Amino acid sequence: xxxxxxxxxxxxxxxxxxxxxxxxxxxxxxxxxxxxxxxxxxxxxxxxxxxxxxxxxxxxxxxxxxxxxxxxxxxxxxxxxxxxxxxxxxxxxxxxxxxxxxxxxxxxxxxxxxxxxxxxxxxxxxxxxxxxxxxxxxxxxxxxxxxxxxxxxxxxxxxxxxxxxxxxxxxxxxxxxxxxxxxxxxxxxxxxxxxxxxxxxxxxxxxxxxxxxxxxxxxxxxxxxxxxxxxxxxxxxxxxxxxxxxxxxxxx
Length: 252
Ligand code: PGA
Prior knowledge:
The chain is α/β, with parallel strands linked by helices. The chain has a single domain (3-249), classed as Alpha-Beta Barrel (TIM Barrel). The protein has helices at 15-26, 45-52, 79-84, 95-101, 105-118, 130-134, 138-149, 179-197, 199-204, 218-222, 239-249; strands spanning 3-8, 34-40, 59-62, 87-92, 121-126, 162-165, 207-210, 229-232. It has an eight-stranded parallel barrel, surrounded by four helices. Strand 2, helix 2 (45-52) and strand 3 form a beta-alpha-beta unit. The two termini are 16 Å apart. Bound molecules: 2-phosphoglycolic acid (PGA). 2-phosphoglycolic acid binds next to strand 8.
């Protein structure tokens, strides 16, 4: 299975800049054996899709979704609406949404299940805070987050989700988690998946790392067993830097 690297633009780039980013990125040389996604703000999905045309690289990833198909849910966006833009991935449970918007494990689980029904792969984000790590609660926190988030997913012969391990203290801090330490967390997550879905999916599921990943440190993550890719915030905002990061991850 290819490694997977997803750019997470967060709340950057409206339609005009999103279109320009995609056009610039498409001009870059990219490794063939790498899956690449871009998580763009909802209002920029149409522009990103227009600049992509029928191209599937990078794959379009949404940053948020609501779990109902339609209805009186002002401001929300349904999985079927994302499908109209050719979205194939969607982040759920990102720590910034947990922190600023009150997203809980239960909401994350509902979103993940609704995405699966619509044929979109949820990218379930989990990770401990600095205080939790200091209290040695890392394992119990990520175990709980993962078990709850995937509870309503059905493995239908293949892994129905990607899991992103993102220690909160490493996000946007310039303090990346040491790859060996990240691997320990990935192993915990893989065990939870194994108990839920069996040994084959335990091996197959992609568990990616996020938190201050750059073109300089990506190689160390990609060469650590059990780390299957990366979720990249700050270092994805410049299309050329992000392309360089992709080339540093996997030889072109
Ligand atoms: P960062 O963000 O790469 O800027 O640390 C990662 C993320 O939040 O997905």
